[in-house]
Amino acid sequence: MPVQPGAPKPPSAASRRVKAVVVALLCLAVAAAAIAGITYSLQLWGGKVVPDVVSMYADEAASQLESEGFAVDRVQVKSDEPEDIVLSTDPAAGTRIDAGATVTIEVSVARMVPDIVGKPLEEAMKMLAAEGFGNIETIEVKSNEAAGTVTFVAPVAGTRSKADAKITVEAAVPYRVPEVRGLSQDEATAALENEGYTVKVGYVYDENVPEGSAVGTDPAAGEALNSGSQVTLNLAKHRSAELVALTRAWLKDSSKVRINGQDYEISEVNDVGYSGGNSCSYTVTARKFETHSWFGFEAETRYGNYETVKGTISWNDSNEMAGSDPKIERI
Fold this sequence. Notes:
The chain is α+β, with helices and mostly antiparallel strands. The protein has helices at 13-41, 58-67, 121-130, 185-194, 239-252; strands at residues 48-49, 71-78, 86-90, 96-97, 102-109, 136-142, 150-154, 167-173, 198-205, 214-218, 230-237, 256-259, 262-276, 279-292, 300-315, 321-325, 328-330. Strand 14 and strand 15 form a beta hairpin.
């Protein structure tokens, strides 16, 4: 057919062949892309996707990861979850990584109360914190152990517990000598024995407190001292009372005395009083007597009338007579 003037020329055979090649190449490219996408999604190349193994048992999770071509590293983590359960993975599930790469799985292990008895309190608290325990009650308990030493823990070491479980820790504080000043002997002794001390009684001259009351201890109140040790309980002793008793006893035991050179027989000790210092006054009922022997015959004693005799006796610190007024001595 003749070509009309001005009409477009039909494509040549060569042009048609080029178009056909282009279309074919495009089809091939699309097909290749589709194949690449499919093979990528099938994880035939470009690495592997980490599967979700959280909440599986550790062996099951490791087996699945290894079947996908990953290496597995297990890390134990203290947890309140059931034991040997996978808590997390690194990288996380869904992450695409190189085949053969390592996936770390965190595996739950039970929290255990650590063996802290005998440890210093500071070290014990660190050990409890390392297990994840935070609800800890510390109680001070008197003990002969070094101050701050843990003497007891509840629950006992080795017990499985959750993070919020209450852990009771008893830590040693030293026994100290109690204050007993002003107490009676029985009260003071009881207070000391309540701390486990054995009591030895001593005496201290002190006229400012009731005789027999506690004036202190050795070691002194407040000093740290192991239970079972001996403590000296010092009780007040009045020198005045001691000297009165000493004077009265001396006069009663001296039925016959010589006062200013005159012999007397004491029949009654009427009164003895403290005069201050180391001296006591006395009043006795006594009668003079004289004994005579005539020309070898049996001696004869003649007595005078009873009279009241007064005087003072002084004593030294060893409770020996140091002087008297009037002078008095046994005969």
